[in-house]
Amino acid sequence: MSKNALYTLYDNLPKAQQIASNLLEENQLKMHLGGLLGSAVSFVIRSVFKKTELPFLIVLDNKEEAAYYLNDLEQMIGEQDVLFYPASFRRPYQV
Question: pTM for the whole thing?
């Protein structure tokens, strides 16, 4: 299956359309995507981003997980629209 066929498949998913609608019409600014595996999250994010053209902030558990999503999203959306802000090595109140 080609990359464009996958994009079309995810663009037509009712849940992806519902997420985009919630962001645009109902101003629901916080969401949690659960139950998706592997790059499915990246495909949904790409689909919703293309529909809404809103900025997204994606918070992940660690730098390694963030690197996987960074790579996926740079390939799907483009490097110019994806930024990576890793945590600093300092932790607040750390002695």
Answer: 0.82
